[in-house]
Amino acid sequence: MPTSQRAYRYAKERILDGILAGGELISEGTVAEALGISRTPVREAFLRLESEGLLRLYPKRGAVVVPVSAKEVETVLETRELIESFAAEKVAALGPSVLEGLLGELREQLQEQAGLREAGDGKAFVAADQIFHQLIVRAADNPILLDLYAGLRDRQQRMGLYAVFNDGDRLRATHHEHAELVGLLEKGDLTAYRAALRGHLRGTRAAVLGPRQDSSIQPSTDVD
Predict the structure, then answer these.
(1) Phi/psi at 206 (nearest 5 deg)?
(2) Measuring CA to CA, which residue among 112, 215, 221, 214 is closest to residue 171?
(3) Is the separation of the CB atoms in 224 and 18 below 8 Å?
Protein backbone atom coordinates (compact mmCIF):
# COMPACT_ATOMS: atom_id res chain seq x y z
CA MET A 1 0.00 0.00 0.00
CA PRO A 2 1.39 3.47 -0.88
CA THR A 3 2.57 5.37 2.19
CA SER A 4 0.12 8.22 1.58
CA GLN A 5 -2.75 5.71 1.57
CA ARG A 6 -1.48 4.16 4.79
CA ALA A 7 -1.37 7.58 6.43
CA TYR A 8 -4.82 8.40 5.10
CA ARG A 9 -6.36 5.20 6.47
CA TYR A 10 -4.55 5.51 9.80
CA ALA A 11 -5.81 9.05 10.45
CA LYS A 12 -9.28 8.52 9.01
CA GLU A 13 -9.98 5.40 11.05
CA ARG A 14 -9.10 7.25 14.24
CA ILE A 15 -11.31 10.18 13.33
CA LEU A 16 -14.31 8.02 12.43
CA ASP A 17 -13.88 5.85 15.52
CA GLY A 18 -13.77 8.90 17.80
CA ILE A 19 -10.23 8.19 19.00
CA LEU A 20 -9.38 11.61 17.59
CA ALA A 21 -12.20 13.81 18.87
CA GLY A 22 -13.61 16.90 17.21
CA GLY A 23 -11.41 19.89 17.93
CA GLU A 24 -8.33 17.76 18.65
CA LEU A 25 -5.00 18.76 17.08
CA ILE A 26 -3.11 16.16 15.06
CA SER A 27 0.31 16.75 13.59
CA GLU A 28 2.05 15.34 10.53
CA GLY A 29 4.97 14.35 12.73
CA THR A 30 2.82 12.26 15.06
CA VAL A 31 1.35 10.22 12.22
CA ALA A 32 4.70 9.93 10.44
CA GLU A 33 6.35 8.63 13.60
CA ALA A 34 3.54 6.16 14.32
CA LEU A 35 3.82 4.67 10.83
CA GLY A 36 7.57 5.01 10.39
CA ILE A 37 7.28 7.14 7.26
CA SER A 38 8.25 10.65 6.18
CA ARG A 39 5.99 13.67 6.55
CA THR A 40 5.41 14.14 2.81
CA PRO A 41 2.86 11.30 2.37
CA VAL A 42 1.19 12.36 5.62
CA ARG A 43 0.78 15.86 4.20
CA GLU A 44 -0.88 14.33 1.13
CA ALA A 45 -3.19 12.31 3.36
CA PHE A 46 -4.13 15.38 5.39
CA LEU A 47 -5.02 17.29 2.23
CA ARG A 48 -7.30 14.46 1.19
CA LEU A 49 -8.97 14.38 4.61
CA GLU A 50 -9.43 18.15 4.46
CA SER A 51 -11.21 17.78 1.12
CA GLU A 52 -13.55 15.28 2.79
CA GLY A 53 -14.36 17.73 5.56
CA LEU A 54 -12.71 15.71 8.34
CA LEU A 55 -9.68 17.93 8.96
CA ARG A 56 -8.96 21.65 8.92
CA LEU A 57 -5.32 22.39 8.13
CA TYR A 58 -3.24 25.11 9.77
CA PRO A 59 0.17 25.76 8.18
CA LYS A 60 3.11 25.00 10.48
CA ARG A 61 0.75 23.92 13.26
CA GLY A 62 -0.88 20.74 11.99
CA ALA A 63 -4.54 19.91 11.56
CA VAL A 64 -7.65 20.03 13.71
CA VAL A 65 -10.34 17.35 13.56
CA VAL A 66 -13.56 19.00 12.38
CA PRO A 67 -16.36 18.38 14.91
CA VAL A 68 -19.66 16.96 13.71
CA SER A 69 -22.08 19.88 13.49
CA ALA A 70 -25.79 19.84 14.23
CA LYS A 71 -26.35 20.94 10.63
CA GLU A 72 -24.48 17.89 9.35
CA VAL A 73 -26.57 15.61 11.56
CA GLU A 74 -29.79 17.15 10.24
CA THR A 75 -28.82 16.93 6.57
CA VAL A 76 -27.53 13.37 6.79
CA LEU A 77 -30.67 12.15 8.55
CA GLU A 78 -32.94 14.01 6.12
CA THR A 79 -31.14 12.35 3.21
CA ARG A 80 -31.38 8.96 4.86
CA GLU A 81 -35.12 9.34 5.41
CA LEU A 82 -35.71 10.21 1.76
CA ILE A 83 -33.61 7.35 0.42
CA GLU A 84 -34.72 4.68 2.87
CA SER A 85 -38.43 5.53 2.59
CA PHE A 86 -38.26 5.35 -1.19
CA ALA A 87 -36.29 2.10 -1.05
CA ALA A 88 -38.92 0.42 1.11
CA GLU A 89 -41.68 1.49 -1.27
CA LYS A 90 -39.69 0.24 -4.25
CA VAL A 91 -39.02 -3.13 -2.61
CA ALA A 92 -42.74 -3.56 -1.91
CA ALA A 93 -43.48 -2.80 -5.56
CA LEU A 94 -40.92 -5.35 -6.82
CA GLY A 95 -43.01 -8.24 -5.53
CA PRO A 96 -43.16 -10.92 -2.83
CA SER A 97 -40.00 -12.79 -3.85
CA VAL A 98 -37.80 -9.68 -3.47
CA LEU A 99 -39.45 -8.78 -0.18
CA GLU A 100 -39.07 -12.29 1.25
CA GLY A 101 -35.39 -12.38 0.31
CA LEU A 102 -34.82 -9.04 2.00
CA LEU A 103 -36.74 -10.05 5.13
CA GLY A 104 -34.56 -13.13 5.49
CA GLU A 105 -31.39 -11.02 5.35
CA LEU A 106 -32.80 -8.49 7.80
CA ARG A 107 -33.75 -11.18 10.31
CA GLU A 108 -30.19 -12.51 10.17
CA GLN A 109 -28.97 -9.01 10.90
CA LEU A 110 -31.32 -8.73 13.85
CA GLN A 111 -29.85 -11.91 15.31
CA GLU A 112 -26.32 -10.60 14.86
CA GLN A 113 -27.25 -7.29 16.43
CA ALA A 114 -28.78 -9.08 19.41
CA GLY A 115 -25.45 -10.78 20.07
CA LEU A 116 -23.51 -7.54 19.72
CA ARG A 117 -25.96 -5.76 21.98
CA GLU A 118 -25.57 -8.48 24.61
CA ALA A 119 -21.79 -8.20 24.35
CA GLY A 120 -21.93 -4.40 24.57
CA ASP A 121 -19.81 -4.09 21.41
CA GLY A 122 -20.85 -0.60 20.31
CA LYS A 123 -18.40 -0.29 17.44
CA ALA A 124 -19.42 -3.58 15.81
CA PHE A 125 -23.09 -2.80 16.46
CA VAL A 126 -22.77 0.50 14.56
CA ALA A 127 -21.27 -1.40 11.61
CA ALA A 128 -24.15 -3.90 11.72
CA ASP A 129 -26.63 -1.02 11.91
CA GLN A 130 -25.22 0.38 8.67
CA ILE A 131 -25.48 -3.01 6.97
CA PHE A 132 -29.11 -3.38 8.09
CA HIS A 133 -30.22 -0.16 6.42
CA GLN A 134 -28.01 -0.66 3.38
CA LEU A 135 -29.66 -4.03 2.71
CA ILE A 136 -33.00 -2.26 2.31
CA VAL A 137 -31.54 0.33 -0.08
CA ARG A 138 -29.71 -2.35 -2.08
CA ALA A 139 -32.90 -4.41 -2.47
CA ALA A 140 -34.51 -1.46 -4.29
CA ASP A 141 -32.22 -2.34 -7.23
CA ASN A 142 -31.20 1.24 -8.04
CA PRO A 143 -27.38 1.40 -8.30
CA ILE A 144 -27.28 5.20 -8.45
CA LEU A 145 -29.35 5.46 -5.28
CA LEU A 146 -27.14 2.85 -3.62
CA ASP A 147 -24.00 4.81 -4.54
CA LEU A 148 -25.53 7.97 -3.11
CA TYR A 149 -26.38 6.14 0.10
CA ALA A 150 -22.90 4.63 0.31
CA GLY A 151 -21.52 8.18 0.15
CA LEU A 152 -23.05 8.77 3.58
CA ARG A 153 -21.19 5.82 5.12
CA ASP A 154 -18.36 7.71 6.82
CA ARG A 155 -20.69 10.30 8.29
CA GLN A 156 -23.06 7.58 9.47
CA GLN A 157 -20.24 5.68 11.17
CA ARG A 158 -19.04 8.74 13.03
CA MET A 159 -22.54 9.77 14.06
CA GLY A 160 -23.45 6.20 15.02
CA LEU A 161 -20.52 5.96 17.41
CA TYR A 162 -21.42 9.31 18.93
CA ALA A 163 -24.97 8.04 19.48
CA VAL A 164 -23.89 4.76 21.06
CA PHE A 165 -21.35 6.26 23.42
CA ASN A 166 -23.48 9.28 24.34
CA ASP A 167 -26.60 7.23 25.10
CA GLY A 168 -26.21 4.03 27.09
CA ASP A 169 -29.66 2.83 25.99
CA ARG A 170 -29.10 3.32 22.27
CA LEU A 171 -28.12 -0.29 21.50
CA ARG A 172 -31.34 -1.62 23.01
CA ALA A 173 -33.48 1.10 21.41
CA THR A 174 -31.93 0.66 17.98
CA HIS A 175 -32.35 -3.11 18.03
CA HIS A 176 -36.00 -2.74 19.07
CA GLU A 177 -36.63 -0.13 16.35
CA HIS A 178 -35.00 -2.33 13.70
CA ALA A 179 -37.27 -5.23 14.69
CA GLU A 180 -40.26 -2.92 14.37
CA LEU A 181 -39.19 -1.87 10.87
CA VAL A 182 -38.84 -5.49 9.79
CA GLY A 183 -42.31 -6.30 11.12
CA LEU A 184 -43.88 -3.38 9.27
CA LEU A 185 -42.12 -4.34 6.03
CA GLU A 186 -43.46 -7.86 6.39
CA LYS A 187 -47.00 -6.52 6.89
CA GLY A 188 -46.65 -4.19 3.92
CA ASP A 189 -47.76 -1.22 6.03
CA LEU A 190 -45.65 1.46 4.34
CA THR A 191 -47.38 4.36 6.07
CA ALA A 192 -46.51 2.97 9.48
CA TYR A 193 -43.04 2.04 8.19
CA ARG A 194 -42.31 5.63 7.18
CA ALA A 195 -43.50 6.87 10.56
CA ALA A 196 -41.36 4.29 12.39
CA LEU A 197 -38.32 5.15 10.26
CA ARG A 198 -38.78 8.83 11.05
CA GLY A 199 -38.98 8.02 14.75
CA HIS A 200 -35.87 5.83 14.49
CA LEU A 201 -33.89 8.64 12.87
CA ARG A 202 -35.15 11.14 15.44
CA GLY A 203 -33.85 8.82 18.13
CA THR A 204 -30.47 8.83 16.45
CA ARG A 205 -30.52 12.61 16.26
CA ALA A 206 -31.34 12.94 19.96
CA ALA A 207 -28.63 10.46 20.94
CA VAL A 208 -25.99 12.18 18.80
CA LEU A 209 -26.76 15.75 19.75
CA GLY A 210 -27.68 15.14 23.36
CA PRO A 211 -29.73 17.48 25.53
CA ARG A 212 -27.85 20.64 24.52
CA GLN A 213 -28.66 20.36 20.79
CA ASP A 214 -25.94 22.92 20.10
CA SER A 215 -24.02 23.74 16.92
CA SER A 216 -21.30 21.14 17.37
CA ILE A 217 -20.79 18.00 19.39
CA GLN A 218 -17.87 16.15 20.82
CA PRO A 219 -17.75 12.35 20.92
CA SER A 220 -16.74 10.17 23.77
CA THR A 221 -13.27 8.89 22.95
CA ASP A 222 -13.69 5.78 25.09
CA VAL A 223 -13.71 3.45 22.09
CA ASP A 224 -12.21 -0.03 22.23
Answers:
(1) -65, -40
(2) 112
(3) no
Q: Would you give the distance in Å from CA 93 to the centre of its chain? A: 28
Q: What are the tens digits of pLDDT across the range 117-173?
A: 999 999 999 999 999 999 999 999 999 999 999 999 999 999 998 898 888 899 999
Which are the contacts of 9, defined by CB distance < 8 A and separation ≥ 6? 1
Could you give the C-alpha distances from 15 to 35, 83, 109, 222, in angstroms and in order?
16, 26, 26, 13
Rg (CA), the chain: 19
Q: What is d(CA 27, CA 99) in angstroms, rounded to the nearest whole number? A: 49
CA gap 167, 70 in Å, rounded:
17
Name the pTM for this structure. 0.83
Distance CA 129, CA 112 (A): 10
